[in-house]
């Protein structure tokens, strides 16, 4: 294919180097083929036995690691980070990939699930992988790329309840817990970007770890997490909750939520915030200092009948001096959902859980490739919302623009008013994926984007073959 068409591959993979340069070429071919057949199996994407066998050998090669596969993408993320200004949100979250295998021990276990009927149920171990990823996102919601990633599995699953019978988890060093991944990703992200002060690490209640707060203070970076632990505060005679009960309401704020059926609803929450002197856990006071942190509490006044009451508690090292500052931090935390969207693209778009590779090592390498593809889908979807009037060549080649102009002329709204813009071309790609582009439709989502990009790839291949046939 034309080198211009696949220029984005070169940019994302330039920093991925291997002991054998042929492995780098194979990776590029795999990314190209899997990108053109989003969600397809390896044989379908590769089309013939020779390329399929080469793909299987690549994933089985001991000289290939997920770190080498993603090294180029990490470098590209760093470049995009350097080209921006202002705060960047580094979103962290964990996701599970579940598989069904005759020999599940070759992959490992993630947990347990109940099987069978209520009167004849039994517990079965779940076969799969776990992935903890950190994604850099601008305040406009544009995903710059992954900054750190961890894969792991368990040879035998032991739940927290079982561990509590043998170990006092509050006294166990953080380095010996799986939750240490939150601290590792923070450190690796800062090392990648080299600008700790611009980074704000955002996590859900699982990231409410005192050691993480201390590491952020040590590295000179920032955090914003949803808290679930009522720690001792002040002089140690009361807790954070007691201080927050004394905090005055700074004002009301309207947020949109959805019920169990997905129906949107706008509700008002009361906002409280206070700077609090937070103490470390009793068993860790010799190792960790007390910290001055800000707690933000957003809560509905009454308990609704049809859904749980909104009750969000955030903790951060960032200063909050006004009601507007508190709302800003709530909006930043709401961005955390974007990493959930990234994981959804991996599972629904790339269909990572339908892969048939038989070992954890091979699946991890495949998912690493999928991470690059999933990021690009997400990035192009959000470009349409964050920078709609940008130069189209930021994401689309000249050949692709000519094809899209031929297939979908700039007629009717919204194409006519966005002719020649990045948004106009991205909407055309989405239309190839089933987006209707009616006047009141919301911006296209990830699903229509990955379908449209797959169709555009097929059309591009057809154009290339047609030119060769006509030329002969």
Automatic annotation (TrEMBL):
Q: What SUPFAM superfamilies does the record point to?
A: Ribonuclease H-like (SSF53098)
Q: Which domain of life is it from?
A: Bacteria
Q: Any idea where the Transposase Tn5-like N-terminal domain is?
A: 6-64
Pfam families recorded: Tnp_DNA_bind
NCBIfam families in UniProt: transpos_IS4_3
Q: What is this protein called?
A: Transposase Tn5-like N-terminal domain-containing protein
